[in-house]
Amino acid sequence: MQKILFFLLFSSFAFAQHLPKHFAPAERKKGFLKSLGITENPYLKNTTSANIFTTPPTDEVRTMAEWEEIQALTITWSTGYNISEESILSQIVENSVQECQVIIICEEESEVESYLLNRGISTDNITYIKTNFNNIWIRDYGQNTVYKNDVGEPILVDWIYNRNRPYDDLVPEKIAEYFNMNMHNTTQAPWDLMATGGNFMSDGMGTAFSSELIIDENSGGYAWEGFDGDVYYPNHSLEEINNILEEFMGIENYIIMENLPYDGIHHIDMHMKLLNEETLLIAEYPEGVADGPQIEANIQYILENYNSAFGTPFNIIRIPSPPSSTGNYPDDNGYYRTYTNSVFVNNTVLVPFYRTEYDTIAQRIYEQALPGYNIVGIDVDNQGENLISYSGAIHCITHSVGVNEPLLIQHQELEDSYPINQYNISASIQHQSGVSSANLFWTTNLEKGYQMLSMINTEGNNWSAIIEENISAPNTVYYYIKATANSGKTITRPLPAPDGYFKFKIIEENNTSLFHNNINKIDVSIYPNPASNTVCVAVNCLKSCEGKIILTDILGKEIALVFDGNLKNGLNQFFIDIKEFEHGIYFLVLNSEQSQIRRRLIIQ
Question: Which helix or strand (DSSP H or E) is residue 597 part of?
Fold first, then answer.
């Protein structure tokens, strides 16, 4: 079945190129098509050779996280946004061609090629796809990379675009055709789903975030005049929306937050970004200003009701949102300036920049949160280059295509710890050809280089190594993981290692800095993890308290009581014999008057 017919078309290609992210004037008015003399449906002219399916994939699927390895970055080369000589687009290309292939959707290849060459930008790693499109905001209407069975065949998923821009909604099919990938479109009932890439973020492990816009768009809140004069809109319950995303995208934990009052497009990439499976970068405003209160309410909602895929509370990093040059924020006619609207391009992160006094702070926050990555600022708010006035920035005008054979490393970064003599570092590592080896590189002094430990394949996809050293406190352990597939493919996590790394601190036992805030005054770690015989549960307490520790299954049912009594000040250790438990994922839960803490345990 061809894609849904019910979108408005604009009278000229040139006009449509500079549409804002929000609705353009008259875009939702009944009779607009007829007033323009539009009688032909662009979807019927689609000549793509890509295999398009309107039913879910038959295999289990996993949506790629943005920090995973990509083979291509896609952009649409749109002019008319008052961007001086397309400088923003050319800077994106210039900083991406060394990382991956760049796919440029354009009207005239020779003009774009000439423009880039005249500015000294190599075009060797650029491919042009000449096709019609309506605007620059490819994040919203572009392709989403999904893998069958975690690391199997890559497929592309395309939702119904929530704007009346039919040529945009055909761009993903052209990309699928170029890469010879199968595409699944959510266009046919009961699988019809309207969504945008700016309002969707995934951790690569089945958790995703959106605003309530996803509900509004799919429960009768949005409607368009179709080519036959009828009005169409998806109409689904929240349960049905969840089911569609699970079937097409592998999303099992869908976190939906309230819309922000001053963000007119309600896309979460304007105020938050996933940096890894456990870390959220969150836009911050002065107290009581603009969307600051609702953002904080949303974060508290997440922290109180959800954990990361590893069973841990999300780590929150805040990054100040800059005002206009006059000091105005969005609640006082200022543009919605944001640093979270960034994009990963393998070892590089492209970040929207505004003014030096704020940009230097943002640069430092990114570099501290993502050590080793090349953080590149691109001005989206300069005179003559005011892209942000159209309600979008760098993430909004880019999208990506994942690699064909991902070597996937999923790892829970170790938490700060008191000295315990053994530090278990484990990861799930997968490749469709199998994994031949994995190594852990670690050091307490980056200038002296890393030591290597071979990781052991404990069972299935789980690999583990133990740092058995008496590391004095205070100290910091820096480490990364390197894996090689049977095919010969090699990758590191983080991608820019050894310049990039994970880290954890070894804290003196009389030092309270291990505890991140006044509420969480207990820290829990489990090692080894994954495990098959005996595990040690290390509980560090700032002060003695009553506590109860239980082991539950993945549904929260209590399996075993580990401890119930007084936890002393400092280090408490408990050992659990797990040989008789079935293999799978469990959670260790500690309840005390101070906090509740959950940690994931893999028994194999």
Answer: strand 596-603
